[in-house]
Each structure stands twice: as structure tokens, then as C-alpha cells.
Design goal:
Layout: H1 3-58, H2 69-132, H3 146-150, H4 154-164, H5 168-176, H6 180-204, H7 215-225, H8 233-255
Helix pairs in contact: 1-2, 1-7, 1-8, 2-6, 5-8
Biased composition (Low complexity): 139-158
Region (Disordered): 132-163
């Protein structure tokens, strides 16, 4: 099983979520700004309506610096359309989050299926590998005599020992190797926490909400939306570091 390939897919899903989450945060900030402007426009419209009623009753000439009521009404309508558009984009983002979780579910199933098929064959391969590459302590190589060892400088001895060990690279790579069981555990944990975060976000934004266009509601939403309390970013960082370590070991082994 290509564990690195599976972890790369996992990283891609996490990156996709992060990118769309950043976009959703920008949408909420934009929605907050438009809503604030619309509330100000509504306030001005109400003031102008009152001023026009007062002028009509007193037959006085208008000296108000506000826009005409009809212009303010059109501006409110335009801002309302903008609010609806941004809310629609937020709903679309929720659907994108769903696709990310679906991708994680599919990846988990893929790893599980591969692991189930690997169980017997992997055991046989491991046994065969140990027969071909026994531990150094079990090597049939005869040790050098003390006299021949003494005639070689210490630096040459260490260099010779490193270069004559046919299993050092294998052991190094084997140490850094990421097992399929680890991959399955990581994928399962990340799938679970992103599914929980999706459920939380769906409870924060859904079509049944009636106060999503209110400034107070949006201010609370913006504060809570960016927290992502269900996601353990430390776990993601651990996975990234393990991949980097494995690649460094592979690169080092290929040079020796």
C-alpha cells in the first residue's frame, strides 16, 4: 500500500477545506459590512420619510441633506439583493464542505479495503523480507581478526562499517515508514473531526434561519465561525511532519 499517496490525498482534502473556509470567512465579513450599511440606509430612509411627512404637513421647503426617500429605498433594495447573494454563496460553501467530508469518507473506505486485502500478503512479504535481510546480529559474515582491525585507522573503520552494512538504509527507511494502520487511524480521526465541524457549521448557517441578515446575529456568527473548535490542527501538523521525515530519509538513502 502506498501510504504516502493516501496521506497526500488526506492533505489535499484538508487544504481544500482550509481554502474554502478562508473564503467563507471573507464572505461573512462582506455580509457583515453590507448589513451594517443597509441598516444605516434604512435608518436614513426612515428619517427622510419622517422629514417629508413633516414638510408635507407644514407646507415648508425641504432643507434636508439626506437623499430622497425613493433613492434610499432603491439603495436598500440593492443592498438586500447583495445580502441574499452572499448568503447564497455561504450555502454553496456548506455544500463544498460536505464534498470534502465525503472525500474523506471515501478515502477511509479505500484505505480500509486496501488494508483488508493486504493482511495475509503483507505478512508473507514481511517474512520473506526478514529471510532476505536478517538483522545484523544474525548475519553470517565472519568478523575480522583483531590484528587486521588494528591495522586500519579508526576513521576508516567507521567509514567501512557504514558502507559495508547492507541493511542500514533498509532499517532507516523501515524506521521512518508509515504503516497502513497509522494511515487508517489518521484518516478516520480527521474524517470524524471534519464531519463534526460540518455539523456545527450547518447549525450556524441554514436556509431556515430568519435573522441571518441582522448585524447582531452576523457579529456572533463571525466570531464563532472562525474558531473551528472541532478540528485538531496539531494532528494535521503531525501528519505533515511525518511525511516530511519519510521523504528526507528516502532522499538520504537514495544518495548512499
Amino acid at each position: 500500500m502506498d501510504t504516502i499517496s493516501a496521506l497526500q490525498q488526506l492533505d489535499q482534502e484538508c487544504t481544500a477545506w482550509a481554502n474554502h473556509h478562508a473564503h467563507s470567512c471573507n464572505l461573512i465579513a462582506s455580509l457583515l459590512n453590507i448589513t451594517r450599511q443597509r441598516e444605516q440606509t434604512l435608518h436614513q430612509w426612515q428619517q427622510q420619510q419622517q422629514a417629508e411627512k413633516s414638510l408635507t404637513s407644514t407646507h415648508s421647503r425641504s432643507s434636508s441633506t439626506l437623499l430622497p426617500a425613493t433613492s434610499l429605498q432603491l439603495l436598500v433594495h440593492k443592498q438586500s439583493l447583495e445580502v441574499e447573494s452572499v448568503i447564497g454563496q455561504l450555502y454553496d460553501t456548506i455544500n463544498v464542505f460536505k464534498k470534502v467530508v465525503q472525500g474523506l469518507v471515501a478515502l477511509e473506505r479505500q484505505v480500509e479495503t486496501t488494508l483488508q486485502r493486504m493482511e495475509i500478503s503483507t505478512l508473507l512479504d514481511t517474512t520473506h523480507m526478514r529471510a532476505q535481510h536478517p538483522p545484523i546480529g544474525e548475519s553470517s559474515m565472519e568478523p575480522q581478526s583483531a590484528s587486521s582491525s588494528a591495522s586500519v585507522p579508526a576513521k576508516s573503520l567507521s567509514t567501512t562499517a557504514a558502507s559495508s552494512d547492507p541493511y542500514s538504509d533498509f532499517r532507516l527507511i523501515n524506521t521512518a515508514e508509515i504503516s497502513p494502520l497509522e494511515v487508517l487511524d489518521w484518516v478516520g480521526r480527521i474524517r470524524a473531526m471534519y464531519a463534526q465541524e460540518l455539523n456545527l457549521k450547518q447549525s450556524q448557517i441554514h436556509p431556515a434561519m430568519t435573522a441571518l441578515d441582522r448585524f447582531e446575529t452576523l457579529a456572533d456568527l463571525q466570531k464563532n465561525w472562525g474558531l473551528q473548535t472541532r478540528i485538531d490542527f496539531g494532528l494535521e501538523q503531525e501528519i505533515v511532519e511525518r511525511i516530511k521525515a519519510y521523504r528526507r530519509v528516502r532522499e538520504f538513502a537514495s544518495r548512499t
